[in-house]
Design brief:
Strand order of the largest sheet: 1-2-3-4-5-7-6
Largest sheet: 7 strands, mixed
Number of strands: 7
Helix content: 25-40%
Radius of gyration: 15 Å
Order of helices and strands: EHHHEEEHEHEE
Structural class: alpha+beta
CATH architecture: 3-Layer(aba) Sandwich
CATH topology: Aminopeptidase
Shape: globular
Number of helices: 5
CATH class: Alpha Beta
Length: 172
Amino acid sequence: MTINIKKCTLEYLGLLQEISVETFNETYKNQNSPENMKTYMDKAFNTKQLEEQLSNISSEFYFIYSNEELAGYLKLNFNNAQTETMGNNSLEIERIYIRKKFQKQGLGKYLINKAIELAMERNKEKIWLGVWENNESAVTFYKKMEFVQTGTHIFNMGNEEHLDFIMCKTLI
């Protein structure tokens, strides 16, 4: 298996939108109403929203390829682009999504390691993320990657509030 991670730029906006909708839907459609899914995805993954995020100098997207096939992506936030006030010494992993057929192949670990590498290049002291309390496989994965729950926050899914665990990993 050949793994490549490449930075996503504006020229790949359509592809980013496609994989964002696909992976989010695969991950959460069985646990949420179709209305809430549509409301969230229309807001989070519309062209204007993704274009703004790709243009933000404090946010970065990376595609991961397995044997030259797009398998998933990573979204990182630095400084004031972070979704919680965690300070400039932190880097947020806002999204790690892997297409269903590529899950359980270790690709998430590659993306976590990429986030750690980029955080260290920027002299960040910790990385953090929010993960839905009911996404047990993700919570287990992050614990294996040495993330520790340090708090919670609310994630709005349509008209429902979901509780996310805030999980952090100290780098220095």
